[in-house]
Model the fold of this input.
Amino acid sequence: MSDVLKGNFKPRDAVDVEQKSLDLNAQFEREALKRLGGSIAFVSKKKFLYGLEHNDEPTSS
Amino acid sequence: MKDMKTVAGELGLKIATDLGEITLEKVTQVGFANAQANAALIAKGKSIAALQKTELMEGEDALVIAAGPSVHRQDSAKLIKESGFKGVIVASESAMSWCLREGIVPHLVVTLDPHATRLVRWFGDPDLTEEALAKDDYFARQDLDPLFRERQLSFNKEMIGLVNKYGPQMRIAVASSASQAVVRRVLEAGMDAYWWNPMYDDYELEHGLTRRIHRLNGLPCINAGGNVGSACWVLCHAVLSKKRIGLVGMDFGYYADTPYSRTQYYKEILALVGPERLDEVFVRIANPHVKQEFYTDPAYLWYRNGFLEMAQQADCETYNCTGGGILFGPSIRWLSLSGFFELSRAQSRIP
Done:
């Protein structure tokens, strides 16, 4: 394939092929990790309720 | 990840610290899509705020029943039934079947997980087929309720009948993130639905996800702590204003004799790290109250850490009557279930 697809120009920026492969691995790993995630979000260090009275201001916990 | 070497449990600890962000990525799109799909029903339904005008507000005590494996190893049902407990009983949807089979009808059931097909099984799935079972063996492996592992199709039919029978007697707090299949079953079974939004991010961010979902349907947003058991507890104190809350089946872990293959995320963990490295993902924790070792996975560990953080903020006393598992620490009082009922009786005698 590399005999057919030859570039006839010099790219302006260097192409880091290895980095791209690492990114793909990280993306794959991220997708796999998502499957270990919880049922729903948890918001740390915040009150328990927002908008219980249908107000725009957070209600107190 | 497969090239990284860590000691027992260390990788699980590392994953658990990232699960807040990872879970948000996992649930946001589907949670919002389900909220959009549920919008018409929500618009003509009741908000969770309406629970504050019901008799569930009476009294200061509540018992949360979650679906941890301890409920099947202890005599909790007998104790609950014989206790004469006057407080409110709030159950996760995953514990509802066990409750009903044991003759306990929860005052309030809670559901939130947006998964398209799994959650409806706890209500009895009218669309369940052999083909569907072949595609997803979650219920054949899970440790939450052993009966859901066996003769799945016929048991599912029994569940449909059981939930239809008791549905009209139960209220349910349905998150806007719940799947169409769950919502359909809730309505079919005649359960009295009260809607709410799970909190997705900091509500102080004007253009954040929580503000967006609130603008979409006007429902109150509740910090659910990552899972339905924690959400039950939050509802008890933050919405129903309970001052003493007992927890049953809130294990957030597995008994040491449970094979890894029976754990919630076994297949996903296996796919991530391979069979040689499972010990690095599962974290072992000794429970000093029962002098027993349990183990847990990253998601349950994240739930536990979140719960411990929330318990320190909460305006209530939390009594863990699970009798096992890994939920212990500051602001969690360890107590037997009979001890909690005695405490509740004693408090109610105080004028």
